Batch of 2 targets.
Target 1
Amino acid sequence: MTGASPLPLRLESVGLSRSGKNVLKDVTTTFAVDPPKTVIIGPNGAGKSLLLQVCHGLISADTGIVDWATPQNARALSRAQAMVFQRPILFRRSAVANLILALKIAGFAKSEWRDRADGALERTGLSRHAATPARSLSFGEQQRLALARALVVEPKVLFLDEPTASLDPAAAHLVESLIDEAATSGVKIIMISHDLNQTRRLADEIIFMHRGRIKERAPADQFFTRPENDLAQAFINGELLWRRRRSIFDGALVDDETCSSEDFNKS
Amino acid sequence: MDVIWQATLASFSMLMTLDDRLIEVILLSLRVSLTALVIASLIGLPIAACLAFTRFPGRKIILVSFNAMMGLPPVVVGLVVYLLLSRSGPFGVFNLLFTPTAMIIAQVVLVTPIIVSLCRESLESMRREYHDALRSLGATAAQAISVLVWDGRFTLATAHLAGFGRAIAEVGAVMIVGGNIDHVTRVMTTTIALEASKGDLVVALGLGVVLVLLSLTINFLVYGVRSLGEAKVAS
Amino acid sequence: MIKFSLSVALAFGLGLGAIMSLIMGLAPGGSILNGPNKTTDSFITVASTTSTQNSGLFDHILPKFKATSGISVRVVAVGTGAAIRLAQAGDADVLLVHHQASEEKFVADGFAAKRYPLMHNDFLIVGPASDPADIKGMADSAAALSKIATAKAAFTSRGDESGTHKRERGLWASAGVDPTAYSGAWYRETGSGMGTTLNTSAAMGAYTLSDRGTWLSFANKQNMIALVEGDPRLRNDYGVLLVSETKHPHVKTRLGQIFIDWLLSENGKAAINGYKIKRQALFHTAA
């Protein structure tokens, strides 16, 4: 791993609105090198994906500061991070060509392309598919390829947005072990998950979001045994938080039949 | 039906004997339409890229205009170009009327909107699809465009085929600006029109069959290149 | 962003263009944009009519002219009205049409110095062998048209302001009939050239007025035959005119005059008179 780490990433009062609705509200937090694996959880519409995209630089926050540690130009910054999306966006080329393109864009020397690409394919178990058109691969293989493409440029930070959402258990397991390996080799993992079991398995630290805000952040074991936030507790219990709101009288959580998922995005 | 059968026979006999006049007319048709395609592409692809990747005031109007221009009647285009190139017109000094160059100019007007509209659509949809991934990888604008154009090359090629088809098959524009002069500006379509007007329906239809075969051949060629290309990606 | 779009797409297009240029460089004629070939060929542009073109006259006489003079003649064949407009605009060097009144107006308006009478042929009324209006063999063409009107038999008109069309209108006037009142009924205006109109007549079983040149060389007669001919009113005179260089300084006056002189010379006349279809001469020069 060469170059200084761009971490810690500091967010201060970050806000974002979409179609007139505040979808991120006053988010203040810091992502550091440790702990290696941070998992963000929360109900639908909490703003998790948007937060990830703001951190990665795909969208700009409307208000607040997104500050990486070492001053970086855009190019170095993009080389230092990578992202895996929920659905793999692969180029209409062979698997190995996808990796080589990533290496080329990241500015690696041409002589290194083939070796690095082959290495990444091997680590993700895709060597025999090197020449296969990427879009002909199975969904699980595609997502593994997306992960390989993200890792082949040796990022310091890897963002993942529900990477195993559509995968069968075997494929999901493979991806999880790859994420583990990446974390072990020094890549900071910031991941969104909907799967509480997966979160239990992988997370060193958990961020719980609800309606555009960070409600709780704690080391994993602490979060699951003694969550401070009652919404978080309800979420862990598997309750559908999108029908839950605070009573205007005493602030306790109440079920609200008239509440709908759209209410989420109201401020 | 008898005429159609005779015409098919006539077309094969023309092709078999490699009739001199037929070859001359085919080569001129190809020269005019292919040149028009190349020029239309040189003009149209950058416009398509601009429309696909940038946003600016008036973009929607330009976009819709190009879509509408795909339906320009060739005879109208021919008339306008004729008036422009006539010795009594603004560009008369260049002496271009009744030459293959005039025909190329008219066909460029007809083909460019097709290139612009179809390529823009393809580039725009690919950009939507690739946008996040390319930004995530940190691609520069130039790198992004090169990926989009390369990955979209088959759709872009189909757009060019469509443009070529429009050019090779039209008669209205080339008749007016070319004058259908023997050995100079007579192409396949104007020959067909002439033979039909002389009542030589068999010859006219025979040439029509040849024209369709030509178009089919070109399409199969492109399809073959495409298949080879797709196979190569997998090999 | 725009700069990059342009540069990359330009590169793509140039690459394509390079390949195409290679293909086209190999085609006979060599250069891609084949404009007038100034180096080897001297040529003139003659505006004439579709009927003259379709008769095959030019295919017969122009090679002879080229052989003696080395000048190529490029014929643009359109309707008479369009040919005259072409010449007026200066897009042709020589005008060769067959409507004396229009030609004389052309001279009067200063677009040519004079009109040279060149040759003549004739018109004839052709129609279905069944001849529903019973006009076969009549000597008076106007009377024949009158019978067609009475019988309300189908008649196709070129309707395109050509020399043929104007002659047809004149004959109707002599017959005292206004056929346009029945346009769409038995009087069908095709707005097309002679050949196309004959195609339409043949398909409809209609009468029409045709010049002999187009008629003799027309290949799709089906069951149509010649019905009325020989009337002096059916005589069709051709004139040739050199476009004035006063009006259009760029006109190839010298070459154009050479062409006209040849047409009027013994050699030219012989070529014109010698053009036969099925042993019939189509055009007759002045003695």
Target 2
Amino acid sequence: MKKLIANIAKLTLTDKVLIFCAITFIAFFAYAFFRKSTNVNAIIKVGEESIRFEPYFVETGTRPWFAQLFFKGMKETDGLGRVNAEVLSIRSYDTLPSRKALYLTTKVRVVYNRASNQYTFKGLPLTVGSPIKLNLEKLYVEGLVTFVEGVEDKRTKSKLIVETQIREETPAFPDSSGTSEHIANALIKGDMVKDDQGNIIVKIIDKKVENAKRLVITSDGRSVIQTNPLRRDVYLTLEVNAIKIGDRYYIFDDVPLLVGEKIPINTSTISVWPEVTKINIEQ
Amino acid sequence: MFAYYSMSKIFKKSLFLKAFEKVTGKLKPENYIFYSSIVFYLLLWHINPNNKIIALSFVFLIFIYNYKLKNVKLSILLTYLASSIIFTGKRYLIQLVPEGVFPKVLAPQGYVSHFVISYLHIIAFFMLILLVRDFLKNRMKFKLEKKDYLVIFYFLWLVLSDILGSSRPNISILFSVLSLHFLVFYFYLKFLIKGKEKFIILIALFTAQIIFESYISYQQFIASSPIYKNIEAQVDIEYFGFAADEPQFRFRPVGTFNHANELGMAMSFWLLIIFAYLYKRQNILSFTALIFGVVTLAATLSRSSWLGFAFVLFFTLFFFEKVKKIKSPEIFTKNILSMAIVAVVVTIFFIFPRAEKSLYTFSEGGGYFRSAQIRAAIELIKQNPLYGVGTGMSVPAGLSQLPRTVFSLVPLGVHNWYLNITTEHGIPAILLFLALIATFMMEQVRKIWDENVINLESLMRIAITGGVVSSMIVGMFQPFVGETFILLAFAILGKRK
């Protein structure tokens, strides 16, 4: 021991600095490469940012051709071959005929920071609302973190009966809000809007079609309701699997169910936005 | 001059001055410079006067320095250097790209440039008057060397390229003409300042600057915000913690500089000089400044400055102890424990978290951004090889000429000074600069290697040359290179014997 102390005393400042740097370097790499990382599940909504053809025209959701490239088990690995992220499941539904909402339930390898009580993924905080970038094998993904394991999700599911009407205001028929006959025929009682896992989101449980009402003003100034044989008033009764946030109901995550507002119905043959006329809440 | 001598006659009778003389009379010039500088800076900081008062007080500082030094030329030079860390002044905002083009969080007012006529320019004007007077009256030995021509051509090229190459020469020329104060500083120092004692006086000023910048940096760090005093140049710096290689919830102190990296670079240069000085004269004040400065340097989280400082420090240490066989000063060996504690603390609290985040630098952090910028800058140079795009015009020119590159996403100048100067002023500018550096370095390395006697001058030669290397390392990662320090080194070390 005395010999060791005597040898340490003989070291020059350069040697001491070199030893300090070497210890720091080793400690840093030991910390960086052997630090404890854990896997947490997060849900990532793939954004329209993933494809940048139309930067000034924003529509919600990603494109169908891009959405169909994802599959369960896709992985991102780091330079050492360790799995950074793995897709556990995929959920998607149509928001528009040309857009899909795409959610990836992903297992991500994160580092927990006790001081800030945060997970970090590739150096950035993994928090709900933060953007995330993944390189899933041959796919580059920019998305939004919508859920992280451990975050309390207060949303509840509710089944509602919603009455709607397809209304088309068109300058060609200024006195009527009915729709064309082919649209009325394309919607069939029993049609369903499902997500890719087969969960029913909207089901048409009743349909009533009649000639569209139109307002006629007589030569003496009276208003008379007549019908238009070329147009149809379509009344749909829908069974909706809604999400309750607070005291308000939503479908497709963030489309509000409110009287007077329109909701999307995208089936395999048609895309319409009927207007909500009444909401019956099943108890 | 006449006014100065008549005022000095009046002041000789002042009771205040008699008391001042009593306090300062026994002080050595270097101690006087240190104390007067630190008191001056602290008064500026705490009284927080407006710009005009600050300008006047810098003029007054010439008299304060000269009171002891009895050397107006040296006093003006010291005042120039003292004012070189204050970047406020008459400030004009020039919008180069309108708002809405870049993300609001990065460029809320669009891409803007600040044209600042600072106190340093006022002092440089005094220096120019003295230089012209001495030149016209043949009071100085005016003989230009090869490197002097290189310095002149370099600065003239900056102006010329702005006239001929800039898309907005009326704006670019403002910046390049304003930068000519460096040229004045270089020739003033070269021709009008004599005597070896100037090293000690400069060290005293640098020590005061380290302590002052550390003092306000600690305040900024504790408050996690600028303190909003008039001499703070940067009070609305962008949020740090966005990128993958940036620790969150950290405020990087900027001192009186525009950016923490600039503070880091200056600190690195000053600290290397203080470090070498301690090998010659050991005093607790310089040692304390060294420790304070190292903590400030660490707190800036400036990786480029750390790299430059550590690289040069280690080589200096190695050269002193292993090549020149100089024993490390007692002040280091006696305080090795306290130095080790400081080293461990700054490593754990500043260096480790930043280094850990830097592992992601090439995924979407600074490394990724810089590599994208380098590719874009090379393309821009290919399109504008001779005159460049003009001072401050790399982003607007990049946006119009290369809209699909990083220039259209992040409104920041090229984070590699060598490429930045080539982008803005063409290939001749960088060739002139590199020729200048090569001439200087070859000369200094030869002198350092050949010098057998280790005196203050030789130690300063090693430290200042190391400081230049450190600044140049910083320049590889930042859009600035520390021209003041480099020209100081050229002028002060480049004199013929």
